[in-house]
Amino acid sequence: MGSDLTADRQVVRDLSGHVRVDIQLHGLVDLGTQPILELALDDALAVRGVREIVVDLGGLTLLDSTGIATLLHAYRRGAAGDVRLRAVGAAGMVLRVLDITGVLKVLCGED
Question: Rounded to two decimals, what is the model's pTM?
Answer without folding.
Answer: 0.92
